[in-house]
Amino acid sequence: MYPSDNIFSIYYNIGKRTPFLVKRCELGLARSSSEERRMDPNRDRTFLVETVKPRGKYGKAYGKCFVDGKPNDSYRQECYPNIKDEEIPCAGCGEWVLLDVPGVDMNEIFPIRHTDYVIEFGKYKGKTIKEVYSQDPKYIFWLIEKDPYFRVDFDQLLNIPENTSDRERIIEGEINRVFPKTTPDDVIYFGKYKGKTFREIFAIDSSYIDWFLRNNQTLDIDVSAFVSMMRK
After folding, report:
1. Which of 10, 25, 51, 121 has a CA between 20 and 30 Å from the CA of residue 99?
2. Could you count the other beta carbons within 10 Å of the beta carbon of residue 31?
């Protein structure tokens, strides 16, 4: 799924190309939470952005509205009766998702960085993605989170076999390796039981573990492991 943003940011990030097709996918407004449905240009309401007139950070965008792939302007007519032209409502709001840029290969706009791509900025400037990942894998994940338009070829990076059905499992396993969840056998580094494992604490003060699990907002907990410990 391509990153969600306001229409103007999308416009700049695709090199000011027009037209381009977008869909508003804010959870409160989406007609379906299905990822497949959200990314299908022939399902639900979409806009073909034909003209963008920037003004400051935002501006106005104009284009045609479609519902289930067919021209349908009832949304603007009913919800925004004051709009007399083809202005797209809420163009400056977030959660617009880029679906397509007709006639342009998306890989041209958002090229996938292979393992030999040399990073041109930051503390690892001059190193390849492969070199950085072997030294500091969290940096690559941070980079992707910071810039969703920066796409990395994880299939190549993780040596994932072509056409394998285990791709998602392999990637999930790698994420868990790089960002391990807190388990009962990990040592706690704060509070009155600092230096003890969660399992040791549970044996002498189970109420403290109950309190910790209810109030924790920072650690990524292996919930199933903690539940298993507490049931014994």
Report:
1. 121
2. 13
